[in-house]
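Tokens for chain A. Residues wanted.
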């Protein structure tokens, strides 16, 4: 008999005629030979496989600990930012989240004329310097930077919230001294007047936000969701997204707003206060059996799921617009296993869909047992929803793009490889009218998944 310690676990190898069997052993000896045996033989293959399996398990456990540490880090950061202030004036703030939704709506109203002015200019001369290409292959416009700057630095600032996360956090904005600048782009002088007017409105609105009522909330801001559509003259798909999240990262209030339609359609809400507000462009003929799909490639899993359910494919673009389409009856479900979207896309949408009686949840937990688990929306340096050996590395989710190679499929084991705000666990989103279809959707997913390798979801 031979004892072997692997990763802190003692294994006992029992000699048989040709090989060794494996049974648990708790003796502290590292490597001994039975006193009654002068020779023994082993088949190296099975032993190496045991070691490899245990090593893989240790790697998975290590990454799970890293992920949980990151969640704790995010929670501690949020709690620290609250400055330990939790008192709310019960008389003036009976419905603090509803008050916040209303201010968010007014803020979107305030920036709309400025956005429309930029949109008209870009549509007329989209190659005239008002837009540039970011490294992640999405258009960035002057409007993105200015709107986010106004929201974060002037509307939401002053320590009223625990943390604020914006899509354009890396941008450098100057609307204090002329010429106004967004990174290396000079804002045309013709926009100076409307920028100053808009800024004045947002500063006034900031006074409506209570200094203490929301200090435990983390805000996610997407100043222009659908930037490519904004920059290419398809403004009807553009939304402003403002999402407010509790200390655990769950969305509790939100605003989705289309600034470039006539009239401006919008939806806001907070489920805990039974707040459901909005002006929606309702479908003349509802499509409860319509599956909203992106303008990109549909995965084999989703394609077969649509066929199994007998749903109709409904083309759609931009995350915020897609969530509003659910509320408008233009589709019944929005499901995906592939990524390409981020948490500033899901924060507001999740909160509003829940306020309207629908849902937005990560795909793996739903696939497992129909659990509706939202993404974790907190300020962080590590992805709080990452699962090792499940996510495939892509150009859109790689933190270091040099690690991605076209045509090479890589399963990620290290959370630090993935962008901190990438949504890499897929998505299940339904309108209230279709919530009763969840069991049938789950059953169809399991059937499709069981049919073969190419039918399984590929999380990115």
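Reply:
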């Amino acid at each position: 008999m031979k004892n072997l310690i692997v990763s802190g676990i003692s294994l006992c190898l029992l000699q048989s005629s040709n090989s060794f069997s494996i049974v648990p052993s708790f003796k502290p000896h590292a490597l001994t030979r039975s006193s009654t045996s002068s020779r023994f033989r082993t088949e190296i293959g099975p032993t190496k496989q045991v070691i490899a399996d245990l090593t893989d398990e240790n790697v998975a456990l290590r990454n799970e600990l890293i992920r949980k540490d990151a969640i704790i880090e995010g929670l501690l950061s949020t709690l620290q930012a609250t400055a330990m202030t939790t008192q709310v004036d019960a008389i003036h703030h009976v419905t603090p989240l509803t008050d916040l939704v209303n201010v968010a709506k007014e803020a979107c109203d305030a920036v709309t004329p400025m956005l429309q002015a930029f949109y008209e200019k870009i549509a007329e001369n989209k190659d005239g310097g008002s837009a540039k290409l970011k490294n992640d292959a999405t258009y960035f416009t002057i409007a993105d930077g200015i709107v986010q700057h106004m929201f974060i630095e002037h509307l939401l600032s002053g320590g009223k919230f625990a943390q604020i996360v914006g899509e354009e956090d890396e941008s450098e904005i100057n609307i204090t001294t002329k010429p106004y600048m967004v990174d290396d782009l000079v804002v045309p002088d013709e926009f100076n007047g409307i920028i100053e007017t808009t800024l004045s409105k947002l500063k006034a609105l900031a006074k409506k936000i209570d200094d203490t009522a929301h200090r435990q909330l983390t805000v996610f801001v997407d100043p222009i969701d659908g930037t490519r559509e904004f920059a290419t003259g398809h403004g009807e798909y553009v939304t402003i997204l403002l999402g407010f999240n509790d200390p655990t990262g769950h969305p509790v209030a939100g605003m989705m707003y289309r600034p470039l339609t006539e009239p401006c359609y919008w939806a806001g809400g907070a489920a805990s206060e039974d707040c459901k507000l909005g002006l929606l462009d309702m479908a003349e003929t509802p499509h409860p059996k319509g599956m909203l799909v992106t303008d990109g490639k549909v995965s084999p899993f989703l394609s077969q799921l649509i066929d199994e359910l007998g749903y109709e494919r409904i083309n759609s673009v931009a995350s915020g617009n897609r969530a509003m389409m659910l509320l408008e009856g233009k589709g019944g479900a929005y499901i995906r296993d592939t990524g390409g979207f981020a948490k500033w896309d899901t924060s507001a949408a999740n909160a509003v869909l829940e306020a309207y009686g629908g849902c937005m949840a990560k795909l793996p937990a739903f696939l497992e047992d129909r659990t509706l688990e939202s993404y974790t929306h907190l300020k962080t340096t590590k992805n709080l929803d990452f699962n090792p050996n499940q996510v495939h590395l892509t150009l859109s989710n790689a933190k270091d793009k040099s690690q991605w190679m076209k045509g090479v499929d890589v399963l990620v084991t290290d959370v630090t490889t993935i962008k901190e705000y990438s949504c890499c666990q897929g998505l299940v989103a339904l309108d209230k009218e279709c919530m009763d279809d969840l069991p049938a959707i789950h059953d169809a997913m399991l059937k499709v998944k069981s049919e073969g390798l190419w039918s399984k979801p590929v999380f990115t």
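The domain at 285-455 is CATH 3.40.190.80 (D-Maltodextrin-Binding Protein; domain 2). Residues 1-44, 83-91, 133-139 have pLDDT under 50 and may be disordered.
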